[in-house]
Amino acid sequence: MKTPFEILKEQNLLAKDVVAIRVGDRTVDFHTPIDPSLPFTVVRTSDPLGLDVIRHSTAHVMADAVQRLFPGTKVTIGPAVEDGFYYDFQKPDGAFTEDDLGRIEKAMVEIVKGDSRFRREVVSRERAIEIFEDLGETFKVEIIRAIPEGEEISLYRHGAEGKEWFDVCEGPHVPRTGMLKAVKLTHVAGAYWRGDERNPMLQRIYGTAFPSKEALEEHLKLVAEAKARDHRTLGRELDLFLFDSVAPAMPFFVPKGAFVYNQLVGYIRGLYDEFGYEEVITPQVFDPKLFRTSGHLGNYNENMYRLWTEDELDLPAAPVGEKGEGPPRDLALAMREHSFALKPMNCPSHCVIFGARRRSYRELPWRVADFGRLHRYERGGVVHGLSRVRTFCQDDAHIFCEQTQVPDEIERFIALLYRVYHACKFEKVIVKLALRPEKRIGTDAEWDAAEAALAQGLEKANLPFERLPGEGAFYGPKVEFHVHDALKRSWQLGTIQYDPNLPERFGLTYVGSDGKDHRPVMLHRAVFGSLERFFSVYLEHCGGNFPTWIAPRQVAVLTVSEKVDAYASRVERELAAAGLRVDLDRSADKIGAKVRSARLSRVPFACVVGAQEAEAGTLSVRSRDRGELGVMPIAELIAIVKAEASPPSRVRGG
User: How far apart (Å, rounded) are the C-alpha atoms in residues 502 and 488?
Assistant: First the structure.
């Protein structure tokens, strides 16, 4: 066994920007011995994996600084995350303040200047528990006890001799603290230990780190822009949606927001004829036997809303375990067994429709779409604006087909998805194949076939993809489509999932060309995903500057004075008669304030009407996206706006 440092040195591959190597699906740092015969690739600071190593190492340095400055503070976990890192602490005397973050950051700079080596030490489970019990690190002891038997336990140390800070950790870490040159602590938040509100509340310090100060500065600029584009702020400023405590985590879309929402639904619906979908409408509430059949009860209980009626409670109760007219006295058991449930997904009801009559292979593939409203109980700690809500709609569809048709259906879906994303100006799409989770239904053979079929479909479409072990749905593997927005952030939106299990559970069959019954394959697919989530991503992507075809208001007519009100009203009527969406501002505000208001509302076209324009029958037009367009007749403005006002779905290939 040799360390990667020794291997790289022997092969003349050491360089200042090399932080680790990649062996299979594992990132291995310089400190961890491996078999030197194994193939590997070099991980550099500029690589995403290298950035993870930098950030995880920085989390250790931050925890060191915290415990130096705030004795008695206990540490828990400190992983690298998508935009940086965090560490959770239990601080004995209250929360960290903004001033504390500044002090911690300065202490981190001093630790980095020390340029000490990270050092790895393997210890026994008993020794690790003894070490952290002596330190009073109760959370660490709990973590160590949860490490599976037989798994190696390692400590990572850094710092000067006699002043070392260490943590139980599997790594990887950079060779030396001096490589951590660009660090910024961003904010503090509360977090329950292990994400469970029954556990102690901890203080989570977030930060980020980069290989260079230039990269850090660019990131901080994007963070500031993201804050300005936060969909919750834009939703309030543009009067699109609101939330109220009477319906926690359930959005109210007000008129302008409802218009955008319906435009998105209309847009995807406009593509369904071309791509061969039929639309259905299904109920909201179902007998629990439907969800027992589908497997949701038992695999998805904690996320489902259950219902009951007065009739169930008014019936006389029977003793527990005995049959009678009413529910058993154990009300909780009765509710679980008999209460109807709001649907969290559309797939079970589509299985009901497919199985309602005899089907032939000539009908396959059958593509059935549904914009039904769904309800899922998300815990309070994870709901976030429109991004994570408890009621939402999907551009949901299911494809019932023969196994041999799966690759073609995946290729067809990908063509639809890329059409939509191109229209929404999402240019970068990353594809990931999520494989079987630990908690699942179906046999290993079925999962083998399902995963192979999705991989074949992606290969047929010539799309590179990344495999994600353990990330599939409980009923089948899925392909995820992650888009990068204008701020270079990644969002998982579209998905297509292979499911042989629901057709089996519902006993679905079709008559094949051989006259015999066969089991169909079911593909679950969505392009937008949750409409609410897509709304939030798209709103931040465009910064509220909706394109003309989707903008709630396309033109703002602004009067210079009340003397031109009559002409401005005529302009409004003519634009509206041409099918344009118009706002007329003839308030007493000065024209500068009106122009500013139109700009803040992100309206695509603003038209100033003064005495000269009224006399000449013209408008002074400014485009939000192209700047001043000058003075023009009303008819010319109508032509310009209408050229941009057609949804991309109406243009084949758009």
Answer: 37
First to last CA, the chain: 57
Gap between the Cα atoms of 101 and 88, Å rounded: 14
**Tokens of residue 31, six digits:** 């400190």
Judged by DSSP in three states, 353 sits in: helix
Q: What is the pLDDT of residues 340-376, one digit of tens each?
A: 889 999 999 999 999 999 999 999 999 999 999 999 9
> What is the set of active-site residues?
347, 376, 394, 396, 398, 478, 524
In 3D space, the residue among 222, 221, 215, 210 whose CA is nearest the CA of residue 486 turns out to be: 222
Distance, in Å, from the CA atom of 539 to the CA atom of 618, rounded to the nearest integer, reads 33
**Burial letters for 170-202: b for 16+ Cβ neighbours within 10 Å, e otherwise?**
ebbbbbbbebbebbbbeebeebbbbeeeeeeeb
Q: Name the phi and psi angles at 360, rounded to 5.
A: -115, 155
Q: What is the pLDDT of residues 427-475, one digit of tens each?
A: 899 999 999 998 887 888 888 988 998 898 899 888 899 999 998 887 7
What distance in Å separates the CA atoms of residue 347 and residue 360, rounded to the nearest whole number?
20
Q: Which ranges constitute the DSSP H helices of 229-355?
A: 231-237, 255-269, 272-275, 288-294, 296-299, 310-314, 331-338, 347-354
Residue with tokens 């989390």: 59
